[in-house]
Structures are given as structure tokens and as C-alpha cells.
Amino acid sequence: MRPDIALVYLLLxxxxxxxxxxxxxxGGGLGRLLGRMGASAAxxxxxxxxxxxxxxxxPAQRRLADACLREHGRSVxxxxxxxxxxxxxxxxxxxxxxxxxxxxxxxxxxxxxxxAAPHLGCWELLNYWLCSRTxxxxxxxxxxxxxxxxxxxxVRGDLAPEQVRxxxxxxxxxxxxLSAGGTVGILPDQKPRKGEGRYAPFYGRRALTMxxxxxxxxxxxxxxLFSFAERxxxxxxxxxxxxxxxxxxxxxxxxxxxxxxxxxxxxxxxxAFTQYQWTYRRYTPPAPGEVNPYxx
Length: 296
Prior knowledge:
This protein has helices at 3-15, 20-37, 40-52, 58-85, 87-91, 100-109, 123-133, 148-156, 168-179, 212-220, 254-269; strands at residues 94-98, 113-116, 136-140, 162-165, 183-186, 197-202, 205-210, 223-231, 238-244.
């Protein structure tokens, strides 16, 4: 590992010594600062909240967006605790699991399981929890800074998941694992590359949506479950959710399948709205005939 990346890892280890409630308090403060500075993350969150909650007045939308920014700050700081402290320590913070019976039944069926984990709550802790229950293959997109990939593979590899790049060979690996009855994890709301997605409704507006997950489900017959780790107040820990996918996700029509995929993401978001990554430019590139909702 490069010296500078090793230094980042050391910093994560040191920050992990702080109580989770302290990290969340610092993160919440950083989120407030983003809002006051008018950072691009704040502008993105406000634009997204206006789309997702059009019934609210502009002041109410802004207050909700500010709450989302505070949760965004907490999500950033808690990574230090989850990654720096290791999987076994992080798993001690899971206070409740809702819907585990769906996961158990899916594993017992032996047809393969696809975990659709949106950018909601603490998805890195969710990875640890899933890997503690079964062998996993996790699809990821390499970071723009190549040197960070080694760090990410290290901190995510504590319970030895198979980390699969989002490229041709990686996709073939996922098909192979599911056909053998294995379990794979995918971020369903990650924007696909050009030519690899379809526009489908998400909170009433069309967003570019991946076709990979629906195709995996249709071709392998695997069970799809949506899942996320909800952040509990005041650093109290986390609640894991496992939710059956909406009907139609494995439809042969990609437009119907992608619409079902986004319904599943939205279903999760509604359980912990402010903990979704609303700072993400989910609606770019805009669908044909629509304008970019984000100010550059």
C-alpha cells in the first residue's frame, strides 16, 4: 500500500477510537456547515428534495434538505468507525434485524440471492452483516483515484467477500455465482454507464437506471431482496432491514423492470428518508426533454 494511503488507513483507525455518538455529532456539524456554505452537495440535496417532496413549501423543503445534509455528514464520519474498527466491532452495533426471515428463506431456496442495497443509511455496515451470514460477491465501481482502490478493498475485505469490479469479467462472475446458488450485492441506484441503462421513474421524475440487476434476476431466477442499515439516533447503533422486491423487477420488458427497481429503492428510502444520499446527482444526465435540475 502506498505511504499516503497507509496514512489514510491509520487515520481511520485513530478516528475509530472515538465513540460513535461523537463521530455522528461531528458529522452532523459538518453537514450543517455544508448547508451554510452553499456547497454543491447542499444544492444537490435541495434540488432532490424539491423533486421528492413537491407538496412541501420551499421553507419546509429547505429544512428537510438540511436534515439530509446532517445525515450525510454522519454517514461520512461513521465510515471511520466501521472501516477503522473492523467488522467484528461494527457488528456489535446492530441492534435489530427486520425481515431476516426473508433472507433465510431465500438462502434455503438455493436459487441465488441478489441483495439490492441503495445508498441509504450505513451500507458498509450492511456489507459486514451480510458477509457474516453467508459468502458474498460484491459488485463495485473502482474509485476515480486509482490509489484508493487498494484501501477500499482492504477495509471492505475484513470478512473476505469476493469484491468484483463493475466490468465485463465482473458481470460474468456474478452470473456464475448466482447460477451456483450464491449471493451477490449490488448498489441498485448507482448510475450506469452510457448505453447500459434505461430511464425509469424515481419519485415522479425519470432517472437513468441500471438494467444489470433486473437482467441478473431474470436470467438466473435469483431472489431479490432490498436491504439497508438504518442509523439509529444518538449513536445508539443500527437496524438492518430486508425487504422483498416489488413485482416486475425480473420482467422481460426492461422499462417495466427498471421501474420496479426504482420502486424498490423508493420503498426503502421512505423508511429513512433523510438517510438517503440526496447529495448524489441522481437525475443526470437528464432524460430527453427534461432539464438538468442541478445548478452548476
